[in-house]
Write a structure and sequence with these properties.
Oligomer: single chain
Keywords: ATP-binding, Nucleotide-binding, Translocase, Transport
Bound molecules: adenosine-5'-diphosphate, magnesium ion
Radius of gyration: 25 Å
CATH superfamily of the largest domain: P-loop containing nucleotide triphosphate hydrolases
Protein name: Sugar ABC transporter ATP-binding protein
Largest sheet: 6 strands, mixed
GO molecular function: ABC-type transporter activity; ATP binding; ATP hydrolysis activity
Shape: elongated
Strand content: 25-35%
Number of helices: 9
């Protein structure tokens, strides 16, 4: 990755009829970067990609490619490839012809075309299907053809719209690794759209979390997971979902239902808190649960449910006030359902959000 910005969205909005779909999107993508856009269905991911590809025009704002207004660049000059969510294959062309088509349009020489196509057919395991029509392929095979059609172009910017969503779970991990290997080899700039958080975390140099047509946070997977800007981001990433508790801040201490959750904390002191009511976020793997009470483990709970995943156990703990939290333990503690236990939170992992705005108080 170099620091050169190859793509920039400046205050981009998009309305369909009177509905505002994209609300002011600002984004800079560097040369060779792998950027993942992650968000729930309907949040505007495909719309954003289509605007970058030049298939839709922003209602307001600008898209710059290599510093040039994208609306002033012809589609031939654009040097962007896109893999569509719905494949968009030509139904009357064979797999080979589908893959070859854009190379012909771009007047790539026959020898070079053949070389690239053989490579792609091999990589995507499509050699045996080269003469088939799209109608004679499974969903996963069609998706691989769509992927290959984007890959053969060797374009500078490669846009992928949920390229793996219809591929079997077993094949998906392999395909994901191939996309990553491809990126390492070719250093293309990639914008990859998905609603799958695991895929996003695995692939992205940076992840842009989108909700309601707005980028909520754009950062490395590590920062997104450990330092989310707001509660939406915190809850969107991580399974099981981050636990939240209503807590009260008072004179240097945090209370949950009259019991101290956190005191003598340097972090709390540095936050200059004034508001009293806060929302505490703690991920299940950062909850410590034991059978015995200690100086550090003194909050009490009852085990409501245990799910054993083999590699780890997921506990649902019921607390006072009818609240419940989930905890993940990797060691076998011989817990049983209904048992009374003690718990605490790893102090450095506690997140605190403003009760009203749900913004992370440390960002
Ligand atoms: P995503 O890809 O994140 O699931 P989309 O970008 O496809 O979301 O769609 C965002 C919103 O815009 C949705 O509510 C969708 O119904 C709407 N939308 C998308 N394309 C059109 C269109 N051509 N006309 C009207 N509404 C559209
Ligand atoms: Mg979409």
């Amino acid at each position: 990755m170099s620091n050169k910005v190859v793509l920039e969205l400046k205050d981009v909005t998009k309305d369909y009829k009177k509905t505002n779909i994209i609300r002011k999107m600002n984004l800079q993508v560097e040369d060779g970067e792998f950027l993942v856009m992650l968000g729930p269905s309907g949040c505007g991911k495909s719309t954003t990609l289509r605007m970058i590809a030049g298939l839709e025009v922003p209602s307001t704002g600008k898209i710059l490619i290599d510093g040039k207004d994208s609306q002033k660049i012809s589609s031939l000059e654009r040097n962007i490839a896109m893999v569509f969510q719905d494949y968009a294959l030509y139904p009357n062309m064979t797999v080979y012809q589908n893959l070859e088509y854009s190379l012909k349009v771009h007047k790539v020489k026959k020898e070079e075309r053949q070389k690239r196509l053989e490579e792609i057919l091999e990589t995507l395991n499509l050699s045996d299907y080269r003469d088939r029509l799209p109608g004679q392929l499974s969903g996963g095979q069609k998706q691989r053809v769509a992927l290959g059609r984007g890959m053969v172009k060797h374009s500078k910017i490669f846009l992928l719209d949920e390229p793996l969503s219809n591929i079997d779970v077993q094949l998906r991990e392999k395909a994901r690794d191939e996309i990553q290997a491809l990126h390492e080899k070719n250093q293309q700039t990639i914008i990859y759209v998905t609603h799958d958080q695991l895929e996003a975390m695995a692939l992205g140099d940076r992840i842009a979390i989108i909700n309601d047509g707005i980028i909520q946070m754009i950062d490395t997977p590590d920062n997104i997971y450990n330092h989310p800007t707001n509660l939406f981001v915190a809850q969107f990433i991580g399974t099981p979902r981050i636990n939240t508790l209503d807590v009260i801040y008072d004179q240097g201490e945090l209370f949950f239902d009259d019991e101290v959750v956190l005191s003598n904390s340097k972090r709390l002191a540095e936050m200059n808190l004034t508001s009293k009511r806060l929302c505490l976020g703690i991920r299940p793997e950062h909850v410590i649960v034991k059978k015995e009470k200690t100086n550090l483990l003194y909050l009490s709970a009852q085990i409501e449910m245990i799910v054993d995943y083999g590699r780890y156990q997921q506990l649902t703990l019921s607390l006072k006030n009818n609240q419940a939290i989930k905890a993940i333990t990797t060691t076998n503690n011989n817990f049983s359902s209904g048992e009374s236990v003690y718990f605490s939170f790893m102090e450095e992992k506690i997140l605190l959000f403003d009760y009203e705005t749900k913004d992370n108080l440390e960002n």
